[in-house]
Amino acid sequence: MTNKEYELEDLLKHSFAEEGRCPVFKEEKIFSEDVLSREFEFNSHGARVEGELYYAPQTSTQLIIICKSHLKNSCDFKIEAIAKAWTKRGALLARVELPLQGRRENPKLTEHLFGTLKRNGELSTLDQSLWRDYFQQAQAELSGLIEILPGPINADIQKVNFLGFDLGAACGIGFCSNSNQHIQAAFIGLDEVALKGPSYPIEGLRALTSDSFMVGHNKDRDSVFENNYGSLMKLVDDDKILIYSGDSLSLENLDTIWNFFNFS
Hints:
Layout: H1 3-12, E1 24-25, E2 29-32, E3 35-44, E4 47-55, E5 60-67, H2 79-87, E6 91-96, H3 109-115, H4 125-148, E7 155-165, H5 167-178, E8 184-188, E9 213-218, H6 227-233, E10 241-244, H7 251-263
Parallel strand pairs: 5-6, 5-7, 7-8, 8-9, 9-10
Antiparallel strand pairs: 1-3, 2-3, 3-4, 4-6
C-alpha cells in the first residue's frame, strides 16, 4: 500500500473521540410562505459551527444536509427554491457553513489554504497536513450535526441525505463513508475541486457503493480534472450523472436529486 493509499484510507476511517455538544437553536422565524427557519450553532473540536434549518410546520421525516462552498465559481443554488420544494414533502433542511468559509473565515489561514487550489504541482507537506486537518474537521462537524438534530424541531427523522456543492461535496465524501447509517448523497461540482496529494478526497468515492451517490457536472465548464476526470466518471453509474448548465441548479435538477434520494 502506498503512502497516498494509506493516508486516504486513514482519513476515510478516521474516528473521533466523543465530545459533549452544546447546541444553541435561535428563535424561530418565518422564512417564506409555509417555510420556517432557525439559525443554530454548536461546538466541534474547539470550533464554532453555524448554520440554518428550514422546515414546514408539519412533522419532518427526512433530514437533508446541505453543504455549499463559498469559493469563487462554485455552483450556486437558491435555498428558497429548495426550501419551498422539499420542506412540503417532509424534509428538514440543514445548511451548514464549511470551516474557514463564510462567517467562519480566518484572515490568514483561509487565504493561504484556499490559495493552494490555484497552484500547479504537488502540495507541500505542510499544505497536505493542513488539508488533511481541514477534511477531518469538516467530517467531525457533519457528524456532530446529526447528533444535535432535530433539536426543538417537530421531526421524526427516518432518513438522512447529503447534498454538497464543490468543496462541500468533497467534504461530504468522507462523512458519508464514515457514517454508521446509509446516506444517499448528491455531490455537485466535484470536478471544480483540483486537490492533489495524499488527502485527495475525491478518490474516496471508491469507498462508497455506486448506488449510494450521484454526481453533478456542469457541461459549460472545462473540467479541472483533465485526464483524471475520465477515471472518476468510471466510478459513477451512467444514470447517476446529473448534467446541468449555467451557474445554478434548475428546478428540474432539484427534482432529479429528490427522486434519487427517495425512489432509487
